[in-house]
Amino acid sequence: MSTKQSTKRNAKVSSKKSARKSTKKSTRVSTRKTKAAAAPKSARAPKRTAAKAATKAMPVASASEFMAHAYAMEAEAAERYAEFADSMEMHNNHEVAELFRKLSRIEQRHADQILEQMGWKQSPVSSADYRWEGTEGPETADPTELHYLMQPYHALQIALHNEKRARDFFAHLAKVATNGGVRKGALEMREEEAEHVRLIEEWLKRTPVPGSNWETDQDPPVLSD
Ligand code: ZN
What we know:
Helix content: 55-70%
Bound molecules: zinc ion
CATH topology of the domain at 28-33 and 46-132 and 142-205: Ferritin
Strand content: under 5%
Structural class: mainly alpha
Order of helices and strands: HHHHHHH
């Protein structure tokens, strides 16, 4: 299926672009000194309630609702991985950047596959309805806003968390799907997402764990001469 899909990717560039645009709002690579991880719990945005509600509603959702959610999930992943890749390039970590580029292409292909499978020209819902979670869970204040000192380890942790979430979503979808085609698609997606989990776990084994002071700039901007 994937070779067939990849030949069609070029034809989808325009829809891909508009999908990417709609998720751009708050997700840009930030060079500001954000302290997302240290943000107080009270400051956490209620942003993720939509995704949460979708998860809760899962057992009664229709096939097209599931697939709309799946599409949003894949589009979000493609978008985030592209950003992670840019961020790693900025840090001259080309190896990890390459990993994220590859994952971005795969997730975009998944998104395209879902559109094709459902006969949709575009997603019926905004991909803003689905957001990646930070490693601290769904309530973390915009954890995916990239810290300017973020290291490969952090990006991989966030990716791992969300790949597991995607894998579990498709596992659940496969379980509750009444439509054979949807179930088959969900099983394939589950396998691929499980493979991403394994891939990222492998990378994490080779990635140094940052010290507790990673947020401290070792080379802060100097104002005097
Ligand atoms: Zn994945």
